[in-house]
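ok so i was messing around last nite and threw this chain in just to see what happens. nothing serious, just curious
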Amino acid sequence: LMSLTNIIKDFRSGHVLSSETLESYVLPVLLDPKNPNEIAEFLTAWHTKGETSQELADLVKALRQRATWQS
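result:
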């Protein structure tokens, strides 16, 4: 079972974040943060690995799909 801790370990090994992993595990944590330290560790590991343009595009796409527009 994938967890944010496993994703952080993958980042430290240089692995790229798949859109499926982003959708299933990362986005729910970022949208409903229960552990700010884990999120900070995740974002730091991602930055240290180096965010790919595809990872950032997938994150933006997923966030836009969940956006609610208010007038």
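not much to say yet. The first helix runs from residue 4 to 12.
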